[in-house]
Amino acid sequence: MRLRTLVLREIFERKSQLLTSFLAILLGITVIVSIKNITYYSEKAVAREMDSLGANVLVLPKSATLQDYYAADLQSQTMPEEYVTTLAMSDLAGLDNISPKLSVPIELQGKTFTLTGILPKSEFQAKAAWGGAGIFSRPIGCGASVGMMGSTDKKTLARKRVIETLEDNEVLVGADVASKLGLKDGGKLNVLGKTFSISAVLPQTGTVDDSRVFAHLHVVQDLSKRGPVINAIEVIGCCMEISKGLVEKINHLLPDAKVVTIAQITTTQQNVNRMMSNLSLMFLVIIIFVGGASIANYMYANVFERRREIGTLMALGANSGLVLRIFLLKALILGVAGGIGGYVLGTILAMVLGPKLAGVVVLPMPFLALLAVGISVALALAASYFPARRAARLDPCATFQEV
Amino acid sequence: MLRMENVSKTYRHRGKLVTALDGATLHIPTGDFVSVVGPSGSGKSTLLLMLGGMLSPSQGRVLLGAKSVYDLSPNERAEMRRRKVGFVFQTFNLVPYLSAMENVKVPLFLAKMDEKAQTERATALLDRMGLGDRLDHKPGELSVGQQQRVALARMLANDPDVILADEPTGNLDPETSQQIIGFLEEFNGEGKTIVMVTHDPRAAKRAKRTLRLQSGTITCQGATDESLYQADSAVA
Ligand SMILES: Nc1ncnc2c1ncn2[C@@H]1O[C@H](COP(=O)(O)OP(=O)(O)OP(=O)(O)O)[C@@H](O)[C@H]1O
Ligand SMILES: [Mg+2]
Question: What is the pLDDT of residues B188-223, one digit of tens each?
Fold first, then answer.
């Protein structure tokens, strides 16, 4: 017999009574953990996407919404491809790179993916040279596109979203597409009735790019019968120029398009994340009140119900400190169980809901286990302190006289 | 061994004072076996609880050995109960969610005995009470007589000098009552001092001495005598 045995026996004997308090604390912790977990990965995804996306300015059709900037080109609104030429031929300073896109949904072996048309850089250079005043004749000063100039590796698309050359019969496939369809470099892929050779499988990026198939913009326009249109232009602008009003200048040049900076778009995501953390704070307050009240209420009832037992223990020589410890240990066990349970459930919930709600892959965060157990234990102990003290101060004999 | 010096106890009940014990003075030497009788409400349980350090008197002193029980701090008193006093109750007061074995281990745990020694001692005590085959039974899975025997084993666990029993046979059939009283006699034979409250004349007669309470006053102390119970039986 140890203190632990005594407390655990009692808990298991009367577990149904404890259930409400346990569920209150468990659910509260579950929600907090899952919100925190999703928010963390969502914030990380924003940071990573900003980092991996070479572009920092987006040109979109006027009516496009900005729910998810990274999938901005997945919307059905389009704008004329001429815009690209307009930009390329302009005398705007600070445009380091321009990449137009047209995306259409496709079905491959019964699964839905996105076919994205892109324009390789060689064509711009041709265009620019042909135009005589192309953007690529200017020196590049911002660093955003340094290093990609001479690269012939098609995989740079995954990181820099820029590609040197792409033939009409070539495609690049995202990592998810490749793994789901079992595709390899050098293989063949039939898309919308045309057979392409796979020039590269792109490395995993953790973004929507993983379920894309990239082909030449004009080929995609032809195959989808959409005509010379695009969904988005990603622009790498020189940071200095952006602060000097590059966005306004582009807007002036293309009055019928919507021009936004990535920073602007990510504020949407950041706002969602901020709302999530406020929500988790609110939940914390709720569980402190509801969970705490439920535990305190249960503990008072438990002390009342066990007053004979407490008296017996005192008759056997237990002092009030031991009685206090019996109830506080019970609270501790409740808190630890609620914390661990809430962490496990919350993590599972986050891993299931994360991809659906926030479009991010969520992994378990051990740090949250500490947080969960900490909150839960502190709450259970605080709520049980006064009931436990009442038990410790019970008059031992009063517990005998009433049967 | 046990001494009460002019002890009174008044309860305040809904504003009115109830005198449960009124100026009780008594001396119980080591090795004595005293039965306490008297009508219901006469203060028997009150007297017993005060002897056991469970209930502080409104007036007077209670001495166990040489120590004045209620001049000790509550924790010292708890320690004193653990070392010196064993209680036996009418309703046994076994912990319902613990097995017979675990119930007997509770005082051993309070004495900080290690787990192995606890098991050995609890097994021996329950064996002595004839419950060697009921170690894992919970109180609800035992007959009332068996439950009281578990309570006796638990009471003996810390080898108390004084046994205080409040109607130990009150819930038992005559045969089991005799068995329990037999055990108490046995413990008395081993040198333990026993004070037993009882309504059962047959049980009271087995004690060496009888103490009669009437409305909170000790009316008679003497050798066990048939005549003491007549008034009581008439009331009951
Ligand atoms: N906590 C209490 N508050 C108020 N009055 C009490 C309290 N406990 C006992 N009393 C009163 O004190 C008196 C003595 O009670 P006590 O329990 O000692 O009687 P008793 O002799 O043990 O009776 P019984 O034979 O029925 O067990 C009774 O009149 C009772 O009503
Ligand atoms: Mg009584």
Answer: 999 999 999 999 988 999 999 999 999 989 887 776
pLDDT at A347: 96
Instruction: Tell me the Cα Rg of chain A.
Output: 31
Q: How many CB atoms lie within 10 A of CB A222?
A: 16
Which CATH number belongs to the domain containing residue B185 in this structure?
3.40.50.300
Task: Tell me which DSSP letter residue B69 carries.
Answer: G
Verify whether the Cβ–Cβ distance A309 to B106 is below 8 Å: no
Q: DSSP letter string over B184-230?
A: HHHHHHTT-EEEEE-S-HHHHHTSSEEEEEETTEEEEEEE--THHHH
Expressed in angstroms, the distance from the first to the final Cα of chain A is: 27
The whole-number pLDDT of residue A295 equals 94
Interface of B with A in 108-137 (CB under 8 A): 108-111, 115, 118
Give the domain extent around B230: 2-235
Q: How many CB atoms lie within 10 A of CB B53?
A: 29
CA distances to A390, A398, B49, B234 from A320, rounded to whole Å, are 10, 15, 18, 43
Contact indicator for A78, A226 with CB cutoff of 8 Å: yes
Question: Which numbered atom of ligand 1 lies nearest the CA of A398?
Answer: 1
What pLDDT was estimated at residue A93? 76
B11 part of contact set with chain A, CB < 8 Å: no
**What is the predicted pLDDT for the residue at A239?**
63
pTM strictly above 0.90: no
Among residues A228, A200, A222, which one has the least CA distance to residue A81? A228
pLDDT at A152 over 90: no
Query: Looking at chain A, which residue has its C-alpha nearest residue B99?
Result: A9
- Chain B residue closest in CA terms to A306: B95
> Considering CB atoms only, which of B95, B97, B102 is closest to A312?
B95
Nearest residue by C-alpha to atom 6 in ligand 1: B11
Give the total number of structural domains in chain B: 1
Angle at B20 between CA B16 and CA B21, to 5 degrees: 130
> What is the token pair recorded at B182?
């037999």
Q: What tokens were used for A188?
A: 């063949």
d(CA A104, CA A221): 9
List, for residues A67-110, the tens digit of each pLDDT value. Answer: 655 666 677 888 998 888 888 888 777 777 788 889 898 988 88
Average pLDDT, chain A: 82
Q: What is the mean pLDDT of residues A242-266?
A: 79
B54/A1 touch (CB, cutoff 8 Å), yes or no: no
Sheet holding A257-261, edge to edge: A188-191, A194-201, A170-173, A212-216, A111-118, A95-108, A232-237, A57-61, A257-261
